[in-house]
Amino acid sequence: MRTVTKKDVAKRTAQELNNGTDENIKIYTAEKFVDAVFASLRKVLSEADPEVRIEIRDFGVFEVKKTKPKPKARNPRTGEIIYVPARRKTHFKAGKILKEELKKEYPDSDA
After folding, report:
1. How high is the pLDDT of residue 11?
2. Rounded CA separation 21/17 (Å)
3. What secondary structure letter does DSSP report for 52?
4. Upper half-sphere CA count for residue 74 (Cβ side, 13 Å)
5. First to last CA, the chain
6. Cα distance between residue 99 and residue 60, in whole Å
7. Where does residue 3 rank: exposed (0-12), middle (13-18), buried (19+ CB within 10 A)?
């Protein structure tokens, strides 16, 4: 599995911004924008009280949802019954365009 880092996203962002324009956006400039976007998303999601939904059209939806407490969970190692309190969890749902792209047939590299 290939890992794409934030720096890779910044490089791709710089390429996208430079396509069809006379300006030449440097990777380190694009990196600042990418950092700012991720920091903003992280702040909005972490400040959710208790739930929030960030909808980015043509990409997807990030949500913070509450989980229910589990009064009778079991530790699989010891068999001990434990209480798991309610908490918040993140959820991502892909948008229509992203779903359509992922549904396209992928050439099998094993063949």
Report:
1. 93
2. 8
3. E
4. 4
5. 17
6. 9
7. exposed
Place of tokens 């380190």: 28
Q: What is the C-alpha to C-alpha distance for residues 44 and 46, in angstroms, rounded to an integer? A: 6
- At residue 110 the predicted structure's pLDDT band, cuts being 50, 70 and 90, is low
How many alpha carbons lie under 13 Å from residue 106 in its C-beta half-sphere? 7
The crossing angle, in degrees rounded to 10, of helices 6-18 and 27-46 is: 120
Compute the Cα dihedral for 8, 12, 17, 20 and give only its sign.
Answer: positive
- Which sequence spans correspond to the domains of the chain? 1-47, 50-105
Report the side by side order of strands in the sheet with 88-94. 52-56, 60-66, 88-94
Give the pLDDT confidence of 16-46 residue by residue, as tens digits: 888 867 778 899 999 999 999 999 999 999 9
Instruction: Identify the three-state secondary structure at position 72.
Output: strand
Contact 45, 90 (CB under 8 A): yes
Q: So what's the architecture of 50-105 in CATH? A: Irregular (4.10)
